[in-house]
Design a protein that fits this description.
The protein is mainly alpha-helical. It has two domains: about 110 residues, no CATH class; about 40 residues, no CATH class. The protein is about 55% helix and about 0% strand. It is rod-shaped, with a radius of gyration of 35 Å.
């Protein structure tokens, strides 16, 4: 046995984990941080301390390094929240909580940035000169010409007015409200 209280994880153990994130913590860093975590408690009651240490280090190694540092921080992490040596599940739960909290914060930041961008676009749109009443009438009609169906050039829709009336039917055509009669 080594004099070292915690062994580093064998590479095959951490590399064999399924769904290991690409930005996971280096196993050596995770092992050192696990040692810091354990050092903050009185003597633990783990049945097999080496297995327990390796399991906690494996859990820590599956998370990004900032999460590992946050969970093992004696001032704000697990050591300041629990009087007893945490189980492997508690370490995992603490890591998951930090990841979730950071995810919500990132999502909130994204929404704020998007809202500010939309506001900027809106303000730019409002700063553009608006059309005058005469320009609006020229563009959309004066409100007495219906929907402009009488003014559609034949080449724009590819059929003549008479063909359109034939397709719709004279009765339906005459029921179009505000249509110029003629």
């Amino acid at each position: 046995m080594d004099d070292e209280p915690f062994k580093t994880l064998p590479k095959t153990f951490t590399n064999g984990c399924l769904n290991e994130p690409k930005n996971s913590c280096d196993p050596e860093v995770a092992t050192r941080r696990a040692a810091i975590l354990f050092g903050c408690y009185r003597k633990g009651d783990a049945a097999d301390p080496e297995t327990y240490a390796a399991a906690v280090a494996a859990v820590l190694a599956s998370f990004p390094q900032p999460v590992v540092y946050a969970v093992t921080d004696p001032l704000r992490g697990l050591p300041s929240q629990s009087q007893f040596l945490p189980t492997v599940a508690e370490v995992r739960k603490a890591c998951d909580a930090i990841v979730e909290r950071e995810g919500r914060a990132a999502e909130s930041d994204y929404r704020v940035r998007r809202q500010l961008e939309e506001r900027r676009e809106y303000e730019e749109l409002r700063a553009q000169p608006r059309l005058s009443l005469a320009e609006l009438k020229a563009k959309y009609g004066d409100g007495h010409g219906g929907w402009g169906i009488d003014r559609i050039p034949e080449k724009a829709i590819g059929i003549s007015r008479d063909e359109l009336i034939g397709m719709v039917g004279r009765e339906e055509w005459d029921r179009i409200p505000n249509r110029k009669r003629g």
